User: Fold this.
Amino acid sequence: VQLQASGGGLVQAGGSLRLSCAASGITFSRYATGWFRQAPGKEREFAARISRSGESTYYADSVKGRLSISRDDAKNTVYLQMNSLKPEDSAVYYCAADSGLVRTSVAASYDYWGQGTLVTVSS
Assistant:
């Protein structure tokens, strides 16, 4: 099983980025997927989640209205569109896949993890 995250980079405050996470080795449509992030010296925190069907999304309050998660099962890929970025959004962003049916923001509930992609937002 592999989750390959990409799309990170350096962007100015107010700018946008789109992260991608391509999955292989799993039946992607059977997994809800999420994005987490971890800033230096801080714990990993939940950012967003999308259900298996793509019909339901769930966001942390800190990113609501600025980040948008979507998925394309034909490409086994989940996306995170990040708009109106702030310096406090700087972190390594990780994608994760969850076989469970219960909506959760708890990292331990997710079965598989990608390697992370670095997002740096300059002020």
